[in-house]
Design goal:
This protein is 46% helix and 15% strand. It is α/β, with parallel strands linked by helices. It has three domains: 25-227, Rossmann fold (3-Layer(aba) Sandwich); 231-372, Nitrogenase molybdenum iron protein domain (Rossmann fold); 393-424, no CATH class. Strands 1-11-10-9-12-13 form a six-stranded parallel beta sheet, sandwiched between helices. The longest helix has 30 residues, at 25-54. 42% of the residues are buried. The structure holds nicotinamide-adenine-dinucleotide, L-histidinol and zinc ion.
């Protein structure tokens, strides 16, 4: 991995350049064409794209319930138990995110409040290009169910020998209502606009590759989206107390997701930097997804050696990684120094894959620097809020002057008269 030894000022410029969200115009245009074609031609366009991108000619997109039940029945006990453990922990964590709304009756004659309503129908995208993601089904569908969503529609790319059995079983465990085997930008377009067979949804959530993430950005406005959850990222802050072999393993855990994944180490220890770089090269040799991981670390990964721990945090806040591991002595004490990260892993035993599978917090997280303004997927993503007010006659009378003054200051006479009507024309 490339090792930088620059000043903080210089390093911030380098990081800004390396992590800049360059809009790839070619991908933007390709995705725009796909979205428009699916919007106009529905299922016919979907079939063409599935044949073109996934090499599969489909008669029908919907996966029959019998197939899902069969997959569940045939699941090995080991996998079933692991999924159930993950489910239990995801539920117990996400239950804490539930919002009840509020009602304020502190002022006599005035009731104000906010009511929380689940979305009616949501679409969850479950990636399936180069790996299968049963864990992502739990991470997306369970919070939706906890929020009270009526219908959870899942899409995932078709596979030559049928959709991965664990994916189907996980969908049953998570309570998904329907599964359609479609993927990529075309699946996002289908969920946004609806086709003859795919129902349009109110919101699309879930991670995916660059085509999926770009399509989600393009359909935003027609539907809601959760965030830009694109190619995975890991940032690690480590000092000399950390073990190079563990840091290398954690970096590769995310690099193996995608050639566009990003793995970054920031340390204050030159020796550690070199040891981790050597370990990454060594561990890559035996990795089944070596080609993907190698391209990721070589083209998009780097190590930065800084002067001090505060400098390390300052630089990592510029990176704003999806996952941030703090592999420093006494890690918990640094939580307050972290401003920008999707999810933080503190201490030696909080290795990133713990969060991917069973810890409970969501693994669908903002990428590409969007952790500066986005949050992990959560129960709050599956609800909307509505405010409400109720005033007594006296309370409205008390505010009459302020309302009519502001309305007329804005040149909106009808606003003022609507309020005055309550007092001028009581007999009507
Ligand atoms: N940020 C998160 O929370 C999070 C969580 C899990 C996974 N991920 C990321 O999800 C991604 C999964 O990617 P994947 O590729 O395995 O699966 P994917 O399902 O996201 O993408 C596969 C689809 O991409 C489309 N596609 C492929 N090449 C194309 C092309 N040239 N033109 C147009 N469309 C094309 C195809 O339709 C294919 O079905 C990875 O980047 C991984 O890092 C992110
Ligand atoms: N690390 C991914 C989020 O970037 C989530 C995941 C699912 N399976 C394995 N990993
Ligand atoms: Zn992962």
């Amino acid at each position: 991995m490339k090792i930088y030894r620059e000043s903080l000022t210089e390093m911030k410029k380098i990081v800004a350049r390396l992590t800049e969200q360059t809009t790839d115009l070619e991908i933007e245009q390709r995705v725009a064409d796909i979205v428009e074609n699916v919007r106009k031609n529905g299922d016919a366009a979907l079939k063409d794209y599935e044949q073109k991108f996934d090499g599969i000619l489909l008669d029908t997109f919907k996966v029959p319930t019998t197939k899902i039940d069969e997959a569940y029945d045939e699941l090995s006990n080991d996998i079933k138990d692991s999924l159930l453990l993950a489910k239990k922990n995801i539920i117990s964590y996400h239950e804490l995110e539930k919002e009840q709304g509020f009602i304020d009756t502190n002022t006599p004659g005035i009731i104000r409040g906010q009511k929380v309503t689940p979305l009616e129908r949501v679409g969850i995208y479950v990636p399936g290009g180069t790996a299968a993601y049963p864990s992502t089904i739990l991470m997306t569908a369970l919070p939706a169910k906890i929020a009270g969503v009526d219908e959870v529609i899942m899409v995932t790319p078709p596979q030559k020998d049928g959709i991965n059995q664990t994916v189907l079983a996980a969908a049953k465990i998570a309570g998904v209502d329907a599964i359609y085997q479609i993927g990529g930008a075309q699946a996002i377009a289908a969920l946004a606009y609806g086709t003859e067979t795919i129902p349009a949804v109110n919101k699309i959530v879930g991670p995916g590759n660059i085509y999926v993430a770009t399509a989600k950005k393009q359909v935003f406005g027609k539907v809601a989206i959760d965030m830009v959850a694109g190619p995975s990222e890991i940032g690690i802050l480590a000092d000399k107390s950390a073990r190079p072999s563990e840091l290398a393993a954690d970096l590769l855990s995310q690099a193996e997701h995608d050639v566009r994944a990003r793995a970054i180490l920031i340390t204050d220890d030159e020796q550690l930097a070199q040891a981790v770089s050597g370990e990454v090269t060594k561990q890559l040799e035996t990795l089944p997804r070596k080609d993907i991981a190698m391209q990721s670390v070589n083209e998009r990964g780097f190590i930065a050696v800084m002067e001090s721990i505060p400098e390390m945090f300052e630089l990592m806040n510029v990176v704003a990684p999806e996952h941030l591991e703090v592999q420093l002595e006494d890690a918990m004490k640094y939580l307050s120094l972290i401003r920008n990260a999707g999810s933080v892993f503190l201490g030696r035993y909080a290795s990133e894959p713990l969060g991917d599978y069973v810890a409970g917090p969501n693994h669908v997280l903002p990428t590409g620097g969007t952790a500066k303004f986005s949050s992990p997927l959560g129960v709050y993503d599956f609800v909307k809020k509505t405010s409400f007010i109720n005033f007594s006659e006296k309370s409205l009378a008390d505010d009459l002057k302020a309302i009519t003054t502001l309305a007329r200051a804005e040149g909106l006479e009808a606003h003022a008269r609507a309020i005055e009507a309550r007092f001028n024309q009581k007999e009507n």
